[in-house]
Design goal:
about 600 residues, Beta-Lactamase, Heat Shock Protein 90, elongated, six-stranded antiparallel β-sheet, single chain
C-alpha cells in the first residue's frame, strides 16, 4: 500500500531532523543518500510527467483546497527564464511530482540538457561542489523544518569540470490547513559576479598591501633598507620569485643586490647611464617589461643572460623633479604567468613611494653631514678655546705675575731708600705694594680659573678639590666634594671636559639657585665616569626644566657648551629639577684602554 501525502510529509520531516541532528558528523555520502531519498519522494512520478507539457487547464487543485489554482510554471516563467541564465523549479510535496525549466544559458554553461537534469533526480545534488554539499544540505533541511525561505550561494561542477556559481532562492508554500503543498524557487548563474567579487577582493588586498608597503618603505631612512623593503614588497604583490635593485652612481646604474625568496646575494653589475639613452629604464625613465626576454638586446639581454629569467619587469625610481635615483627589477612571476599592466601600476605606485623615501633619506644624510660638520667645527672651537685658555694662563703666570712680583721688589727697595721721617712717601709706597700684591693674587686666580695647573700636574681630583675651596671662598657657598682619593688619571680631553662642566654647574648654582650649599660627587665604574652637582635651592619651574632636558640651545651658551663637550666624548648631560634642588648629571663612557693608572696627556 502506497504512502499517502501526509505520511510522506512526516517522513520528510524525520529525514530533515535526522540531517540536522547529524550536522557535526554527517559525511557527504550520507547527506547525498538522504537527499536522494528526498528526491525520490519529490520526483517519483517525473517519468510520467513532462515538465513543459503540463497543461495548466488540466492541473487540478487537491480536493482539500478547491478554491486555489496550481501555479502555472510554463506560462508564467518560460519567457522570463529564457532570457536569463537561471533554473526555475517547482516540487509538489503532496503529489510527489516535480517540474523544472533550465534556460539555454544554463544548459550551455553546465553541459547538461534539461532532460538530463530531470531524468536523474539527484544529479543536481551530485554536481554540487564537495566543499559546499554539507552546507547546502543543512540549509535545505532547515527550510523543510522551519518553513523559512532558503537563500544560498554554492558552486556546481559542470560536465567538463569547470565551476559555476549559483545563487538559489527557494520557498515552501503550504495549504490553508498548514500542510506543505509545494516548493518553488529559482537559481541564478552568478559566476561573473563571483569572479568580479574575487577580483575586487584581490585588488583590495593588493591596495592594502601597497599602503602597508609604502608605509614600511617610508618608515626608514637608510637607502639599502628602503630598496630591500621595496623589492620584497613588489615581489609579494606581483608574485615574482626574484628581484634586484641598483642606484645611480656617477655615470652608471650599479645593481648591488639580488634577492631570491629570503636569500640575498651581493652583486656588482654596472649599466652605462646616459640621459640620452633609450635603453632599459635609464634614458626614458619608464618601465620596461618583457615576457620573452631572450628576444631582447642591449642591457636587458645582458641581465637575462646573467640571471636566466623567463620574464621580468624593471621599474625606474624617479624623483618629483625628474631625477633618476635608480631602478629595481622583478624576475620570474609564479607559474610562469606574464607580467601585466596591473602589475606595472602597482609597482610604479611603490616606486613613487620609494622615491619620496629616498629623497627624504638624501635630505637626512645632507642634514647629518651638515650637523657633523657643525659638530666638528664646535669641537675644534672648544679645543682651541681650551688651548687658548691654557696659553693665556701660562702667560699670566709666567709673565704678568712675574712682572708684578718684580714691581713689588722694586717698591721694597725704593721704600728702604726714602729719608726717614717722610711719612707720606712711605704710606704711598705701602699702598702701591698692596695694590701690586692684590693684582698678583687676582692674576694668579685668573690663571688658575682659565686652566688650573693641578689639572695637568696631579689630575682631576686635585683640580676639583682646589677649585671647590676657592669657589667657596669667593661665593660663601659651602661645597662638599665626594670623590675617591685613588681616583686615577684620565685622558686630558675627559679630565678637561669634566672640569669645565663642574665649573659651569657651580657657576649656575651661584647665579640662579640661591642655595647655601652644594655637593660635587664624581664616581668611576668599569665603563663610565659620572659627575653630579646637587644644590638645595629653588629649582626650576616645570615649564623650563622639562624643555631644558630635551634641548639646550634655547637656554644659553653655558648648558649648550656642557652638552657639546660631553657629546664629543660620547657622553650626555641630564638635568633634574624640583623644589628644592637641582641636579646636573654628566656621564662619559670610558674606552677600554683608559685604566685607572693612565696618565693625562702632557
Amino acid at each position: 500500500m502506497d504512502e499517502g501525502p501526509l505520511e510522506k510529509n512526516e517522513w520528510m520531516r524525520e529525514l530533515a531532523q535526522s540531517l540536522l541532528a547529524e550536522k557535526a558528523n554527517s559525511s557527504v555520502l550520507e547527506a547525498e543518500a538522504t537527499l536522494k531519498k528526498l528526491a525520490d519522494v519529490f520526483f517519483q512520478n517525473h517519468s510520467h510527467t513532462s515538465p513543459l507539457a503540463t497543461d495548466p487547464r488540466e492541473e487540478t487543485v487537491p480536493e482539500t483546497n478547491p478554491a486555489i489554482k496550481s501555479p502555472n510554471l510554463e506560462a508564467r516563467y518560460r519567457t522570463l527564464v529564457e532570457q536569463i541564465p537561471a533554473v526555475v523549479f517547482m516540487t509538489y510535496l503532496d503529489r510527489g511530482i516535480g517540474e523544472a525549466y533550465v534556460s539555454p544559458q544554463i544548459e550551455s554553461a553546465l553541459g547538461f540538457s534539461q532532460a538530463e537534469w530531470l531524468e536523474d533526480p539527484v544529479r543536481w545534488y551530485q554536481r554540487v561542489h564537495p566543499e559546499d554539499k554539507q552546507r547546502w544540505s543543512l540549509e535545505a533541511a532547515e527550510m523543510f523544518l522551519s518553513g523559512r525561505p532558503m537563500r544560498s550561494a554554492f558552486r556546481v561542477i559542470a560536465r567538463d569540470g569547470h565551476v559555476v556559481w549559483f545563487h538559489c532562492e527557494a520557498k515552501m508554500v503550504r495549504h490553508e490547513n498548514g500542510r506543505p503543498w509545494f516548493i518553488h524557487g529559482i537559481g541564478f548563474d552568478i559566476t561573473e559576479l563571483k569572479l568580479a567579487e574575487k577580483a575586487l577582493t584581490e585588488r583590495t588586498c593588493q591596495l592594502e598591501g601597497l599602503c602597508s608597503a609604502t608605509h614600511r618603505i617610508n618608515a626608514v631612512l637608510d637607502v639599502s633598507t628602503i630598496m630591500r623593503t621595496l623589492v620584497a614588497a613588489a615581489m609579494e604583490l606581483t608574485g615574482a620569485q626574484a628581484g634586484t635593485w641598483g642606484m645611480v652612481v656617477q655615470d652608471k646604474i650599479v645593481l648591488s643586490e639580488y634577492s631570491e625568496g629570503e636569500k640575498r646575494t651581493p652583486i656588482d653589475i654596472r649599466l652605462a647611464y646616459s640621459p640620452d639613452s633609450s635603453e632599459l629604464v635609464i634614458g626614458n625613465k619608464g618601465p620596461h617589461i618583457s615576457n620573452s626576454p631572450k628576444t631582447e638586446s642591449g642591457p636587458f639581454r645582458t641581465l637575462c643572460d646573467t640571471f636566466s629569467f623567463y620574464n621580468a619587469a624593471y621599474i625606474p625610481i624617479v624623483s618629483r623633479t625628474g631625477e633618476l635615483f635608480g631602478c629595481f627589477g622583478l624576475h620570474n612571476k609564479r607559474n610562469r604567468k606574464p607580467f601585466e599592466q596591473t602589475d606595472v601600476m602597482l609597482i610604479q605606485a611603490l616606486a613613487m613611494g620609494a622615491a619620496v623615501a629616498l629623497e627624504n633619506a638624501r635630505i637626512l644624510k645632507e642634514h647629518a653631514l651638515a650637523e657633523e660638520s657643525l659638530r666638528s667645527l664646535s669641537t675644534r672651537l672648544l679645543n682651541l678655546q681650551d688651548d687658548e685658555r691654557r696659553r693665556i694662563a701660562r702667560e699670566l703666570h709666567d709673565s704678568t705675575a712675574q712682572t708684578l712680583c718684580g714691581v713689588m721688589i722694586l717698591l721694597d727697595i725704593l721704600k728702604s731708600k726714602i729719608v726717614k721721617g717722610d711719612v707720606d712717601a712711605v704710606r704711598t709706597l705701602d699702598e702701591g705694594r698692596t695694590l701690586a700684591e692684590q693684582a698678583s693674587r687676582e692674576i694668579r686666580d685668573l690663571s688658575h680659573l682659565l686652566h688650573p695647573p693641578d689639572l695637568d700636574q696631579v689630575g682631576l681630583n686635585g683640580a676639583v678639590q682646589w677649585y671647590a675651596t676657592r669657589f667657596a671662598q669667593r661665593t660663601g657657598i659651602s661645597i662638599d666634594v665626594d670623590m675617591p682619593t685613588e681616583f686615577g688619571r684620565l685622558s686630558r680631553e675627559v679630565e678637561t671636559s669634566l672640569f669645565r662642566v663642574m665649573q659651569e654647574g657651580l657657576a649656575n648654582v651661584h647665579r640662579h639657585s640661591g642655595s647655601p650649599t652644594a655637593k660635587i660627587r664624581i664616581t668611576r665604574s668599569a665603563d663610565k665616569i659620572t659627575l653630579e652637582i646637587v644644590d638645595h635651592g629653588q629649582g626650576l619651574p616645570p615649564d623650563i626644566s622639562e624643555p631644558l632636558r630635551r634641548e639646550a640651545a634655547r637656554f644659553g651658551i653655558g648648558i649648550n657648551g656642557m652638552r657639546e663637550r660631553l657629546r664629543q666624548l660620547g657622553g650626555k648631560l641630564e638635568i633634574y629639577s624640583s623644589n628644592p634642588g637641582t641636579t646636573v648629571m654628566a656621564m662619559i663612557p670610558l674606552a677600554n684602554d683608559q685604566n685607572p693608572t693612565a696618565l693625562s696627556d702632557s
